[in-house]
UniProtKB/TrEMBL annotation, chains A, B:
<protein>
    <submittedName>
        <fullName>Hydrogenase expression/formation protein HypE</fullName>
    </submittedName>
</protein>
<comment type="similarity">
    <text>Belongs to the HypE family.</text>
</comment>
<feature type="domain" description="PurM-like C-terminal">
    <location>
        <begin position="189"/>
        <end position="337"/>
    </location>
</feature>
<feature type="domain" description="PurM-like N-terminal">
    <location>
        <begin position="62"/>
        <end position="173"/>
    </location>
</feature>
<dbReference type="InterPro" id="IPR036921">
    <property type="entry name" value="PurM-like_N_sf"/>
</dbReference>
<dbReference type="Pfam" id="PF02769">
    <property type="entry name" value="AIRS_C"/>
</dbReference>
<dbReference type="InterPro" id="IPR010918">
    <property type="entry name" value="PurM-like_C_dom"/>
</dbReference>
<dbReference type="InterPro" id="IPR011854">
    <property type="entry name" value="HypE"/>
</dbReference>
<dbReference type="InterPro" id="IPR036676">
    <property type="entry name" value="PurM-like_C_sf"/>
</dbReference>
<dbReference type="Pfam" id="PF00586">
    <property type="entry name" value="AIRS"/>
</dbReference>
<dbReference type="InterPro" id="IPR016188">
    <property type="entry name" value="PurM-like_N"/>
</dbReference>
Length: 364, 364
């Protein structure tokens, strides 16, 4: 007991020291890795943005900031979309931009209400393509039950953008009955179950293949979809039992779980065999030499729930059309390592680290 | 009297017909003019964005959307900044992005509270420049009393952007005591006075000269500044007397007043001699062959106020450091032309139309 206790304290101290250490960007110039959602992005965000803008809402580093506005509890989030190509099987930059921001609001536990749309257009961009993109945004907004209420358009000279970039910011409201505890990795406890809402990696693989640079054919389409119906179904089914939710976009499920493990100061143990990956996605990842755990989804989220209510949570997800492929993929262990461990199909264990580098640039 | 009455009806009918006519984008490809804030931008916004996203908040076409969120009255706005060069006398893309969005919230009559920041970075962009930009944003946010609470970073390959683009979206709250009537061109009446909060055109001219393409030297710096203190001072000084406020950014004072005249179905009469233009700005405009009325400001706004309270309004503006150069520049006439007329210094009258084309690309 004593030995164990000392070990824990030492580890906690080491983690605390690492936390106090000021993050530093060592590179002199921005690289694609700084936009990949992995380690370089984290360092950039912590060293530059958090350092410059210091405030509690930002420092929580969630996908959405929880704010008080004249008595209302509002969630505010932003994302710029630079996906290439603009049109791909299963979607385009338009519905991606709407769904992505809706999902950031949804996983915070809020009800998404309003979006803004800011366009950067390259001189010479076809008006017909822009029309297609706005139509797709409108359809996605209607499906998610949100309104695009304000916008902005900028045009830059040819060669100063890549057709069209779209920023969507969003406002959601936390108005669920009862005083649900705040969702977030800080409320994760040992014994909690880890779920994913469906098969992973479909969006990222679709984009890679849509670029046509690889000689791989696979029947894959993007999973882009609005998750607010599904998150509401989960919150309704296990009131008070959901610890946190996070959509698994850039950096994939692996990166989300690393954030959870680190913030909670616990170990997340994944069972490889339980992680749902459709055959064409798994096949393409094998050929590309990438792990589906790092591949972005745009219509899947990771949820950590009270272990005793994992079955009810799973039933709620599977009862929704967007959660049919949901699965319990692991659990939270009381070891304070801050690591994600994968129990492989062959009985081994390996550490699943945060994404390093950028194997899949501009997937969103 | 009868003749006059018939004329009015005819004019009103013509305006109504024009309003009902569906706007159409005739070009097949996006041009720089679509981003200039003038006629082409208006048509693009009305034909594509309003058409696709139809909802009352968007159709108001104000700089900010007024929304109900769980009992609170929230204003939501967005702007992407693509200014070139990124650093210029008097500011940079960072404080410009903060001030611009703060100002869109301020002129709606709201109290700006929270901003988001979405970066698109070009691979190879110096980290030191990004640090300078975020420091400038932080300083501007502190000055305006707002917090940057959420953000996003994307990186695109070299040659797919121009260093750094920044989107800022913002949330303000309408929580002033009393039930102030909604601000907007719809409440403008004949006899109202038109004010500008200071000398115009400084930002646009600064950017033009900072590009170094012209062999003109002038002692001009950007007017970029947060206007929320100044708008609050005005609203406090003439409660219920302010009809509308609008910051004169892309398209300048001329374009703002055309929107006012058209929306109000009245004539705005400007006195050229009353429009404050500092000598170096006037001189540069003359050399460049552009009219300062079309040149963007980033720290000035146009206000339409009850004519009987113009003096009180002017005093309030002049009593604030950012409004020292404020002036009454014209009045609203009951002629239903929807036009802006300029009484020139030489006793003539000319029509001041909305901006056509893009004489000053990427000024914000």
């Amino acid at each position: 007991m004593t030995t164990r206790h000392i070990r824990e304290e030492e580890v906690l101290e080491r983690i605390e020291r690492a936390r106090r250490r000021k993050p530093r960007v060592r590179e002199e110039r921005i690289t694609l890795a700084h936009g990949a959602g992995g380690k370089a992005t984290q360092t950039l965000v912590e060293a530059l943005f958090v350092e410059a803008f210091r405030n509690p809402a930002l420092e929580a580093l969630d996908d959405g900031a929880v704010l008080g506005v004249d008595g209302a509890r509002v969630v505010f989030t932003t994302d710029t979309y630079v996906v290439s190509p603009l049109f791909f099987p299963g979607g385009d930059i338009g519905d991606l931009a709407v769904n992505g921001t809706v999902n950031d609001l949804a996983v915070s536990g809020s009800r998404p209400l309003y979006l803004s749309a800011g366009f950067v257009l390259e001189e010479g961009f076809p008006v017909a393509d822009l029309r297609r993109i706005t139509a797709s945004m409108a359809e996605a907004a209607a499906r998610a039950g949100v309104a695009v209420v304000t916008g902005d358009t900028k045009v830059v000279e040819r060669g100063k953008a890549d057709g069209c970039y779209v920023n969507t910011s969003g406002i959601g409201v936390l108005d669920r009955a009862g005083d649900a505890p705040a969702l977030g990795p800080g409320s994760v406890r040992p014994g909690d179950a880890v779920l994913v809402s469906g098969p992973i990696g479909e969006h990222g693989v679709t984009i890679m293949l849509a670029r046509g640079e690889l000689d791989i054919q696979a029947d894959v389409t993007s999973d882009t979809a609005p998750l607010n119906g599904l998150t509401a179904a989960l919150l309704d089914a296990v009131p008070g039992g959901v610890r946190m939710m996070r959509d698994a976009t850039r950096g994939g499920v692996a990166t989300v779980l690393n954030e959870v493990a680190r913030a909670a100061g616990r170990t997340v143990v994944l069972r490889e065999a339980a992680v749902p990956v459709r055959a064409p996605v798994g096949g393409a990842c094998e050929l590309l030499g990438i792990d589906p755990l790092y591949v972005a989804c745009e219509g899947r989220f990771v949820a950590v729930v009270d272990g005793g209510r994992a079955e009810a949570a799973l039933d709620a997800l599977r009862g929704h059309p967007l959660g049919e492929g949901a699965a319990v993929v692991g659990a939270v262990d009381d070891d304070p390592s801050g690591l994600v461990l994968l129990k492989t199909a062959f009985g081994g264990t390996r550490i699943v680290d945060t994404l390093v580098g950028d194997p899949l640039p501009r997937i969103c």
